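Reviewer 2 asked us to include a model.

Predict the structure of this chain.
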Amino acid sequence: MDGKILRGICGLFVTGVTVITSGTGDAVDGTTVNSFTSVSIDPPLVLFCLHRDSRLRAVVKETGAYVVNFLTGPQERVARAFATRDTAAIQDVEAHPSVSGVPVLSDALAFLSCRLVDELEGGDHVIFLAEVVDLGALRQHHDPLIFFRGALGALADEPAPGHPIWDG
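Predicted model (structure tokens):
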């Protein structure tokens, strides 16, 4: 399987953009992730995937908790700042502590504060499964930041013409 072709095909699936934050006190870090999904409503479980060599991996394991921050359309700069190896510091953005002490980005669309349940190997990535223990919609009337065809962007103001196809 050619990895570049696989990445291109998967890039045709629109995803939301999140910044995962973890750690407490001076040992806080964050990274931009689009591999987030909900798993279960009862119990309330979510997951995200992280490259096995990511600097955030040890922070999540040590803390046993993380926050999923859903970004708004205008937060592309924040997404890019947390996407590099020399990531932005949490002090560079407005944040407040979640119930677990892990930072929540105050200008995020919404957040999920999570307690780590399991860490599973998934090829060159690690899957972090967690239970949602707190949540909030901070900017619920804003559009989300999305990732499509390898680019960040906001939703269009008008839906594209066409007829939706619903299956199921």
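The two ends are 30 Å apart (CA to CA). The chain has a mean pLDDT of 86. We have added this to the supplementary material.
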